[in-house]
Amino acid sequence: MKSKKLKVVVSALLVTLVAGAFVGCGSSNNNTASNDTKKAETTAVSGSITVAGSTALQPLAEQAVEGFKKKNPDASVTVQGGGSGTGLTQVSQGAIDIGNSDVTAESKLKDQAKQLQDHKVCVIGFAMVTSKDVTVKSLTKEQIQKIFTGEVTNWKDVGGNDLPINVINRPASSGTRATFISTVMGSKTEKEGLGTTQDSSGAVKTAMMNTKGAISYLAMSYLTSDVVKDINVLQLDSVEANKANITSGKYGFCSYEHMYTKGEAKDVSKAFIDYIMSADNKALVEKLGYIPMADMKVELK
Question: Would 186 be classed as within a structural domain?
Answer without folding.
Answer: yes
